[in-house]
């Protein structure tokens, strides 16, 4: 295929490489550590292999061949070949064309061929702002525009996923001539990065449940996996009391009638149940006090631009300790996890909501809602912060539908995400740098708010923390534990998406030693842009 020079991509790669180098040097000498105080509270989480994502499952990865770092692949018989050298089970092409249009009211058409996976239209007017940029599909429906990188006001990007074939329309208004660049990614199934970008697929095996493995490595009480079959047995109860203080379901895989009965018995016995992501859908079937009015029609799965909990009730226990920001703050300030590391594109990020009225009339408290759709809520029991917690989006499985040549992460919790999880469990996560505690997230059940303080120097906090009581870590809320090597992991010797780097578990998630997103945001934050 013809190779085209794309200056925007090259510029981004150069900036990203420089940011990674600078931030890595900054943190190379730091010693980081994380501890999780549980107050003796144990936690169980529902295991499921259905959440695991493997590079070997991709249609463009050859049968019997596993991709490895560096672009080569190793056959199961021990031979080495180059990714893409043999027959493919999938094909994809990337085509780009550019045109110059005169100043004024810009109107142009774009032909979208059948099988288009992604359509991207970028408009650039040098030295001038592009206003009113709109992309209309074949039915005349407008597609949402996204801002250019780093506040680049003379560039607007419009993207459509799985666009209908036919003639689309572009409209905009500029005071100077505008360059319109149209990129069409056509793919049979999942796009092949080698035929599209020239990159070999890097290996990965990831699962969002690695977050609990990392939590277990730092906690002073057990954090253990249970199966769906065990939910329906007597595993959850011991002498009529909860065998685990907390039970977390991030999904509903394998949950049958017997498991639902076991969950109901667990809650009625005084267990603390946390439902996140597709697990929120189980609220319609539990039938426990406070959820008995919730029906299947009251639970909705939406696809959003980003996972966010806007304007949460600061008095609600789930968000206790979250710092507030002014109205100009980015949606990113309210995200519990970041979608690019998990393969999600804008406007396809999953969020599960429950009809707020149904919850409130049953005595539940809603921490965050949009259009009467509750995204964060708690059905309280007699004990403090014990009941059923609903978190609409926190630990979804990664998606493989989009291009991801450098692999995927199992989870990408932000500091806000860790705060929500710790508050739901009644845990307190403390982060130390070079032996000095600088950040604390969450609070123990039965402790007062005053216990949750940061001992660090606030002067080192660049204001990007979303949810500490004093900040001081200097990190943003983009950080993720590095869990993408092999089975994922928790603070041991895990690696990056290609399995060749160190994993730092929870400490990396809070300190920012595990994620490229952190490094990039730290760099822009240092330059005075506030980490946006």
Q: What do these coordinates show?
A:
With 532 residues, the chain is α+β, with helices and mostly antiparallel strands. It is 18% helix and 28% strand. It contains 10 helices and 28 strands. The protein has helices at residues 7-28, 193-197, 210-218, 228-231, 257-268, 283-286, 356-361, 415-425, 505-511, 516-529, and strands at 32-37, 43-46, 53-54, 65-67, 72-75, 80-82, 92-101, 104-112, 116-124, 131-136, 142-143, 145-147, 155-161, 166-174, 178-187, 205-206, 223-226, 237-238, 241-242, 246-249, 272-276, 299-304, 349-355, 365-370, 373-380, 387-391, 428-433, 436-441. Strands 2, 17, 20, 21, 22, 23, 24, 25 and 26 form a 9-stranded mixed sheet that branches. It has a 5-stranded antiparallel sheet with strand order 7-15-9-13-12. Strand 27 and strand 28 form a beta hairpin. Helix 1 crosses helix 10. The protein is globular and about 75 Å long. The relative contact order is 0.15. Residues 69-89 and 447-532 have low confidence and may be disordered.
Provide a quick synopsis of the model.
By secondary structure, this protein is α+β, with helices and mostly antiparallel strands.
């Amino acid at each position: 295929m013809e190779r085209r020079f794309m200056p925007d991509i090259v510029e981004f790669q150069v900036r990203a490489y420089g940011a990674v180098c600078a931030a890595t040097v900054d943190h190379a000498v730091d010693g980081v550590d994380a501890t999780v105080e549980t107050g003796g509270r144990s936690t169980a989480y529902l295991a499921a292999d259905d959440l695991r994502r493997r590079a070997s499952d991709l249609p463009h990865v050859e049968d019997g061949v596993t991709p490895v770092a560096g672009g080569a692949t190793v056959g199961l018989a021990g031979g080495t070949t180059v990714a893409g050298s043999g027959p493919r089970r999938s094909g994809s092409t990337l085509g780009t064309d550019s045109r110059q249009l005169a100043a004024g009211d810009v109107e142009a058409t774009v032909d979208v061929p059948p099988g288009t996976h992604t359509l991207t239209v970028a408009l650039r007017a040098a030295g001038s702002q592009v206003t009113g940029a709109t992309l209309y599909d074949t039915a005349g429906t407008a597609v949402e525009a996204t801002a250019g990188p780093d506040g680049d006001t003379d560039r607007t990007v419009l993207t459509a996923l799985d666009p209908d074939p036919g003639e689309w329309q572009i409209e905009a208004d500029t005071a100077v001539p505008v360059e319109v660049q149209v990129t069409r990614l056509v793919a049979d199934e999942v796009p092949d990065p080698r035929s599209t970008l020239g990159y070999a697929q890097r290996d990965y095996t990831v699962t969002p449940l690695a977050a609990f493995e990392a939590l277990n490595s730092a906690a002073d009480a057990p954090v253990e996996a249970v199966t769906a079959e065990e939910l329906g047995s007597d595993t959850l109860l011991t002498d009529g009391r909860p065998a685990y203080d907390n039970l977390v379901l991030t999904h509903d895989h394998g949950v049958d009638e017997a498991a639902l009965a076991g969950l109901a018995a667990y809650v009625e016995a005084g267990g603390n149940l946390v439902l996140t992501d597709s697990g929120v859908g189980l609220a319609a079937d539990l039938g426990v006090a406070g959820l008995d009015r919730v029906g299947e029609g009251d639970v909705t799965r939406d696809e959003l631009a980003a996972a966010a909990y806007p304007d949460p009730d600061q008095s609600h226990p789930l968000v206790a300790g979250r710092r507030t920001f002014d109205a100009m703050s980015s949606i990113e300030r309210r995200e519990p996890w970041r979608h690019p590391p998990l393969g999600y594109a804008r406007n396809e990020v999953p969020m599960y909501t429950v009809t707020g009225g149904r919850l409130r009339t049953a005595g539940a408290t809603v921490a965050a809602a949009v259009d009467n759709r509750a995204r964060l809520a708690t059905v309280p029991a007699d004990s403090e912060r014990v009941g059923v917690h609903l978190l609409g989006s926190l630990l979804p499985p990664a998606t493989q539908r989009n291009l991801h040549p450098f692999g995927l992460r199992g989870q990408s919790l932000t500091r806000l995400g860790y705060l929500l999880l710790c508050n739901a469990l009644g845990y307190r996560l403390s982060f130390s740098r070079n032996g000095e505690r600088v950040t604390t997230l969450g609070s123990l059940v039965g402790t007062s708010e005053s216990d949750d303080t940061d001992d660090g120097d606030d002067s080192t906090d660049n204001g990007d923390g979303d949810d500490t009581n004093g900040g001081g870590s200097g990190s943003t809320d983009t950080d993720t534990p590095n869990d993408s090597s092999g089975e994922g992991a928790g603070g041991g010797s895990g690696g990056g998406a290609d399995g060749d780097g160190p994993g730092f578990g929870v400490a990396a998630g809070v300190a920012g030693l595990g994620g490229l997103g952190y490094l990039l945001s730290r760099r822009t934050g240092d330059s005075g842009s506030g980490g946006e």
